Amino acid sequence: MKAMLFAAGLGTRLKPWTNEHPKALAIVNGKSLLQRNIEYLQAAGIREVIVNVHHFADQIIQAVSENQGWGSTVHISDETDELLDTGGGLLKAAHFFEGEDYFVALNVDILTDLNLVKMIQHHLDMNALATLAVTDRMSNRHFLFDEEQSLVGWRQLEPFSEKIVKSSQFQIPKAFSGVHVINSSLFGKILQQGKFSMVDVYLSLANLNYIVGFDHTGSRFLDVGKPGSLQMANDFFH
């Protein structure tokens, strides 16, 4: 099984660190976010990973090389010419997943102890096109699900906007945790081109495809998006 780490973003919320470094190399208790997520994937048996790079790409490439992938085989998807967002970045890396029935994708700037093996099994049991890790935490943006965990829409609180893509009596809001398990058949269904978000992909496909949530409320989770959260990460992740 393979995985993709989204590491190409500018990390503007993590300034001043990202004025001179990529967010993927921000340090939490002596280990970079990149190393921690590679080791997180290893714990689920995943040792072949592709990492997309853009902002200070050379630093990430050098770190991977110097540390021999921290025990994993790490490939690079180079987006130095154009930042493609999560959807465009995943589509550019589609070749890496040829021959795989399904794979994992996650944002490099999140830290969590959610049980990835259990999430993968849930994805297989549900026979879903994609499974999205979610919780009940406070957030400005939510995926909306029906009573059977099927994706029906998206809501942003401030400024308010909403997109309902499937009729449902229920619209249960859940905050997305940046972890996906994806069936490789998704690549044949993506109509977007260039720079686009996976949120747009899921919303465009949810009406005719089974995209589900995996609620890991109670697991440790932190979006390491700003300097204050780095201190929290040092307290919570050792």
Could you characterize what this model shows?
The chain has one domain: Spore Coat Polysaccharide Biosynthesis Protein SpsA, Chain A (Alpha-Beta Complex), CATH 3.90.550.10. It is built from six helices and 14 strands. The chain has helices at residues 33-43, 57-66, 85-92, 116-126, 198-205, 227-236; strands at residues 2-6, 27-28, 31-32, 48-53, 73-78, 102-107, 110-112, 130-135, 141-145, 151-156, 161-164, 172-183, 211-215, 221-223. Strands 1, 4, 5, 6, 8, 9, 10, 11, 12 and 13 form a ten-stranded mixed beta sheet that branches. A two-stranded antiparallel ribbon has the order 2-3. The longest helix has 11 residues, at 33-43. The model has no long low-confidence stretch (mean pLDDT 95).
Estimated share of beta-strand residues: 25-35%
Q: Which stretches of 5+ consecutive residues score pLDDT under 50?
A: none
CATH class equals Alpha Beta
Name of the CATH homologous superfamily: Spore Coat Polysaccharide Biosynthesis Protein SpsA, Chain A
Helical coverage, percent range:
10-25%
Which architecture would the CATH scheme give at its second level?
Alpha-Beta Complex
CATH topology: Spore Coat Polysaccharide Biosynthesis Protein SpsA, Chain A
* Beta strands, count: 14
Euclidean distance between termini CA atoms = 27 Å
The secondary-structure element order is EEEHEHEHEEHEEEEEHEEH
What is the global morphology?
globular
